Amino acid sequence: MSIIFGQLVIGPPGSGKTTYCNAMYKFLEKVGRKVAVINIDPANENMGYKPTVDISHLIKHDEVMTEYGLGPNGALVYCMEFLEKNIDWLIAKILNLKDYYLIFDCPGQVELYTHHKSLATISEKLGQNLVRLCCVHLIDSHHCSDPGKYLSSLIVCTSTMLHMALPHVNVMTKVDEMKKFSDKLAFNINFYMEVLDLNYLLEKLDEDPFTSKYKKLNAALVSLIEDYSLVTFLPLDVSNDALLLQVKNAVDKANGYIFGGNEPRDVQSLLACAVGAISESEKMSSIDSYMD
Fold first, then answer.
1. What is the spatial distance between Cα 57 and Cα 111, in angstroms, rounded to a whole number?
2. Closest to 44 measured CA to CA, from 29, 28, 62
3. Distance CA 242, CA 249 (A)
4. Which residues contact 32 (CB under 8 A, 6 or more apart)?
5. pLDDT, tens digit, 9 for 90 and up, residues 114-169
6. 290: exposed, middle or buried (C-beta count within 10 Å: 0-12, 13-18, 19+)?
7. CA 199, CA 185: separation in Å to the nearest integer?
8. Cβ-Cβ contacts under 8 Å for 263 (sequence gap 6 or more)
């Protein structure tokens, strides 16, 4: 049985998951890859793409809310647990897509990634059927404008990486909009992307009238993030092919696609050379240009 590769696109509401799925789908098709988008977000109503597999054919979010008297979040949890119990339905659909690269558009409820077990179990079951996934965790760049929000994003990313136990790429989305709140950024963009010395962040948290009330907690959380040292971000503007290429290559390395994908070797080599040709300084220079 051949290996199927793909991305599990996760992140909080408003981080741009569906927009990313649509943009990455078109980008991968442009470089010659056969792609299928799998929608497992039952509350997803504004898809810019046509999903090859859609969870709404198995269970509907609004019907769950009506039948069981649940709110939006409770209904999402129910739908994920229902998908977990009926994972054979999803596996059967995916095994018919052996020649495709898969992009999973996931729900935006953070609890599903940080401590609820269904999504982790679903990804584990897919892995047992030779589906090699990489989590692509999207975070809205606007969180950089507030030290407390940025720290929260780091905590969510760390918790998710530990809970999901998959190869992981963290992406800071909407960097093209950062110039709109550049006056609120305490540090340069490199600091937020590379997650540099967080003692500087701790100083900003201690200066804020709200977060300064929690100095010991802030210090403990910063220490936890630095101890694990797992989180860095790739910047992304979905209209920028160079940044999409960097994300694509990072994901391909993480899930092993570069070693066992279906693209011709000459295509893979060209893409690898392309991303290698973009130096770290050139990458950050292209991001800094958004602030001009």
1. 24
2. 62
3. 11
4. 263, 267
5. 999 999 999 999 999 999 999 999 999 999 999 999 999 999 999 999 999 999 99
6. middle
7. 16
8. 31, 32, 33, 271
Supply 227's token pair. Answer: 């101890």
Q: Answer yes or no: are the C-beta atoms of 16 and 131 closer than 8 Å.
A: no
Interaxial angle between packed helices 265-276 and 241-255, expressed in degrees from 0 to 180 and rounded to the nearest 10: 120
The model carries a pTM of 0.90
Task: Report the interhelical angle of 118-128 vs 87-95 (nearest 10°).
Answer: 40
Name the token pair of 239.
């209209």
Q: Residues 99, 36: contact at Cβ < 8 Å?
A: no
| Tens digit of each residue's pLDDT (9 = 90 or more) over 265-286 | 445 545 554 544 445 555 555 5
Q: Measured between alpha carbons, how far is 289 from 198 in angstroms, rounded to an integer? A: 25
Number of Cβ within a 10 Å radius of residue 153: 25
Closest alpha carbon to 145 in 196, 188, 184: 184
Structure tokens at 279: 């130096």
Structure tokens at 35: 């792609």
pLDDT of residue 195: 94
pLDDT digits (tens, 9 = 90+) for 56-100: 999 999 999 999 999 999 999 999 999 999 999 999 999 999 899
C-alpha to C-alpha distance for 167 and 200, rounded to whole angstroms? 29
DSSP helix/strand/coil, 201: helix
pLDDT digits 0-9 by tens, 189-232: 999 999 989 999 999 999 988 888 999 999 999 999 999 999 99
